Amino acid sequence: MVRKILxxxxxxxxxxxxxxxxxxxxxxxxQVLGLIRDRLLAATFGAxxxxxxxYAAFRIPDFIFITVGSMVSVSVLIPFLxxxxxxxxETGRRFIGNIFLxxxxxxxxxxxxxFFLMPGLNPLLFPGFDNQKVEQVTxxxxxxxxxxxxxxxSNILGTLTQTHKRFFLYALSPILYNVSIIGGILLLxxxxxxxxxxxGVILGxxxxxxxxxxxxxxxxxxxxxxxxxxxxxEIKKVLLVSIPRTLTLGSDNISFIFLVSFASLMTTGSIxxxxxxxxxxxxxxxxxxxxxxxAVFPILxxxxxxxxxGKFREETILSAKHIIFWSIxxxxxxxxxxxxxxxxxxxxxxxxxxxxxLTAAALAIFAIxxxxxxxxxxxxxxYYATGNTRKPFLAKFLNALTTIVLGYVFMTIYSQEPMFxxxxxxxxxxxxxPGAIILTLPLGWSIGELLNTILLWGIFERDFxxxxxxxxxxxxxxxxxxxxIGIVTYFGLNIFDKIFNxxxxxxxxxxxxxxxxxxxxxxxxxxxxxxxxxxxxxLVTLKNKMSKVKVIPPSPSGLSQ
Length: 561
What we know:
There is one protein chain. By secondary structure, this protein is mostly helical. It has a domain at about 15-45 and about 50-250. Helix content is about 80%, strand content about 0%. It has 23 helices and no strands. The termini are far apart. The relative contact order is 0.12.
């Protein structure tokens, strides 16, 4: 029975859309579990001091994972591994074993240094916290330092599972991660307090890594460490590729650290509101942007390394159009249904109506950036496929800097300019709600993402002519359909407001669900009239169950500069 389960989850997956939809489906499941996790946290603590401390504790461990653990990400190692495996499985195993041991020692050493520096770093990162809060953050952060170690090792094993097209196995890891965190909330917190929540996170990180081990062992992919010697020449090659990519992908985390630092200066619960709204906004990011950018990445490597720039551009255009097709309606529904979404998912226990209003308003601002973040992921992956890491690095560095500056500027203006404050609160319907200054941080984030996407789009168009035309056409079509979705959904809310009992969670859910469903039907009608190709493609895919197009493995020659 166990072997059948292992064989099932370790099966090979072929087809671009099949891989994308598989990753997307598991991303949906993972995000649903993440929402259950957040609901439990909201019900147990509300947007208050405990969650401010809990979320603050993640900042340094997350930074270590992004800057060190992500150096050995799948997108970095796959081209190297494919190149090595041309000389045989044993050569590939030696390469992975070399990288595995080196980065294990590196991340353990950095985590150990962070362990001792934590008491001095946390007061600088969270200037609004008193000594007691800082001490609690330090205790939790030190335990959480195990997380980047396990997740970093999981990244390396993920290279092997992805190379062998075991997308099912790769997609299962975050499921186990979220299940463990939920278990920590339900089973460990009652006995151990906040530290129990952190124990759940560590268990999740361990299972994220461990679920891949049976496949690695069964297929003889486990490195033989008896004859292992550090090959610093190979390590240097990986570092030269990975450092720019790591800094590029880690720029959002750097921005996040600064914004959370600003939030610590605001009213109690501001960090929790910021994290809750951000977590909700990342649902479509994981389902759409990450799934499509991961699925198309090996295809882009193949076409570019073969010198087929036309096919490279076509695949990028196709992915961009589908990302836009899904992202804009998602963003529209998030903006219009923000209160229903937040109240349904988080509105329980200690999570108050004030918490709901602030989180919903922050979600609406974050939602504006959904399409921009998803397109940025595609542009970054496309440049990685060409071996160019410099351009996305510079763009994301400017993005991080812009986001931090804008967050600080908007926070300052809100405090000093009544007109700006009153206008922002009026637009988002949070007049008189304490702590509304937190809305300035997602505002800075979304505008920063917009500017970054414009910059990357312009650079990409200059490098690959004729990209913008068909993508912009889709953008306007989908925007028109989404506006109809938004308008119809808004009026539906007003109609069903009188039908459902909005004092109950089920009533709020039904109001939002039916209004959104009617809005989506109206949007589909408009896109049908516009003969939108993406809608036609989705309908054909659903009709045929799955596309039969084979995934092209990454080419060894598609290495970064």
